[in-house]
Structures
1.
Amino acid sequence: MCASVTIVGALALLASRPVLAAYETVTVTNGGTIDGVIALSGTAPAGGTLKVTKNQDYCGASIPDPTYTVGAGGGLENVIVYLKDITKGKAAPAEPVALVNEHCMFSPRVQGAMVGGSVKISSNDTVLHNTHPQNAETNATIYNVALPFKGFSVTKPLPGSPGLIKVKCDAHEWMHAWIMELEHPYYTTTGADGHFTIKDVPPGTYTLVAWHEAAGEKSEPVVVAAGQTAKSKITLTAK
Ligand SMILES: [Cu+2]
């Protein structure tokens, strides 16, 4: 009796889970563009620095804190911008995403990647780095890669399921980066002025999401028409 109740319960749970449609690659002709800015409102902590606790002779005594990098006009850098509900469109990127250890920081700090892709981890530094990606929700280690010398690189697969990966360096506690694995290739990262562009979008109505490591996430609908540019502005609030 108990076993059958459990099985019925499990089946009901399975049935209630949203079924994620697999992404389908199609030829996008006369797609639209989403062009926009992610702005920051509120007061971001000003001029912070990251304290360097190791290899100070190479890394320096402190490093500017890039968490809130706001350009002229209030645009916020290092925001991942992506479409939430797109199930078909342009092809996956051919190249692995790159994560470079440089000047005792990760570059880029944040980036999107497509499910099934990989990451090329490399070092331009002469100090030992240790790249350690974790599931951002569970902190489960994905792998742990030592980068023993300048010029070293290794390409590793991403976990292969949608979600946020937090990357740290076990040798240098101030080093952090984020990779967001998404089911499709419609993502980008804002530049120094908070600007972003997403191209070759099949016409339709989507949810555009902006995610920032400290200011959090916000979304808004966007309507993309064939061959047109849809303007978008999302304002995140400093926390
Ligand atoms: Cu390091």
Note: Helices lie at 2-16, 56-59.
2.
Amino acid sequence: MDLAPSTETLALRDDVRAWLRTNLPWEYGTGLPPRHADLDSEVAFLRRWQGELARAGWVGVTWPTAYGGRGLGPAANFVVQEELARARAPELVGRIGVNLAGPTLLAHGTDAQKARWLPRILGAEELWCQLFSEPDAGSDLASVRTAARREGTGYVLTGTKVWTSYAQFADWGLCLARSEPDAPKHKGLSCFAVDMRAPGVTVRPLVQATGEAEFNEVVLDEVFVEDVRRIGEAGAGWRVANSTLSHERGVNPRQLVIHMQHLEELLRLAAGGGAFDDPRLGRRLAQAYVEVRLFQLHNWRSLSRLEKGLEPGPEGSILKLYWSEMSQRLHALALDVLGPAAPLWHDAHDNPGDGSWQRSWLYYQAASIFAGTNEIQRNVVGERVLGLPREPAATAGGSSGPGTVKESGRAST
Ligand SMILES: Cc1cc2nc3c(=O)[nH]c(=O)nc-3n(C[C@H](O)[C@H](O)[C@H](O)COP(=O)(O)OP(=O)(O)OC[C@H]3O[C@@H](n4cnc5c(N)ncnc54)[C@H](O)[C@@H]3O)c2cc1C
């Protein structure tokens, strides 16, 4: 593992930092993004912000220049993400397009599809959502039942998707559907770009524990999708979906820096409230410090792999497993440090952080579920990294028991 930054990487870090110092809409290093009364105004603000970032070339750093990227490598992207997070820049509102749909189109889209969709992803002119999960297809993603019936110059899609983040704001949905019902489970799927405003698409927000409704149920009722909006060959949806899912793992510079910031704030909170005088809390604070540092080293190891042109591989599951559990321990500790203020919410008296720790605690409970649950990550690590025996195969025609999972994208990528 070579950790020495190249001259180009150092120069890029200086560039992005200088740009942020001038253009960040809050004070660099100390300020925070504005709080918004509702998700609509937050999304509108974030779209403008992503537009500015994209115009300066800080979105899609690894994308080809022909589609608005910089054509740089993973280390350059890591540096830009680190600097954005260090400046407390919020997550990209168009992250599903930038991190999932875009790379999928780059790998499987036609030239016309790339030209149509890619440039509008970077500046958040169009937002995407990921229409994969269904009520009976999450870990076992190959069980999707949404039907794609061939008709005329396209397909008619009918089914229900769930947990679709930002569907209420999305222009396009990357959808996995069953186009060949008689083909074997993994072979009868196709991938489509669904116009989220087409007749027959209904989006119903689902309120989460934080009180916000970031994700949704999406009902597709006889939604017509033209052939030209099928991504990849008919029946090749499983391969396309797997390449989407492979982008949900690997290095995670953003979570790294977010957790470095959380740690910094937690140590400040602990010092201010006297938590270090309690040896039980003191030991856990030291442990939190060590864990964030280990997460950094895991990231660097994966990054070094990517820089050598290797895939993240099943080892990517170790990183996801590690950071999600680390995050939940760090947040549990934060609430213990808050002590009697832990159950309070915004606008309460004597509540350090004004509810931000409590919100963050609730949010990160989902970290062990999204992008593949931790049980699934453990299966991947057990079977594909440690070489332990595989789960038993599903019985023919059986329900989606644990055995089906080893064949699924969320389990196997
Ligand atoms: C905040 C958030 C945002 C999300 N956004 C999106 C999105 O935008 N688009 C999208 O398509 N999906 C999204 N999801 C869905 C997410 O991908 C699924 O929730 C996840 O893959 C798990 O699927 P499931 O909920 O159906 O649980 P299930 O697969 O039903 O699992 C239920 C439980 O059984 C366990 N389990 C299942 N199989 C096995 C096995 N073989 N061995 C051991 N244990 C097993 C699981 O670990 C879990 O604990 C989101 C989820 C969250 C929490």
Note: Strands lie at 128-131, 147-151, 154-161, 172-178, 189-195, 201-206, 215-226, 230-231.
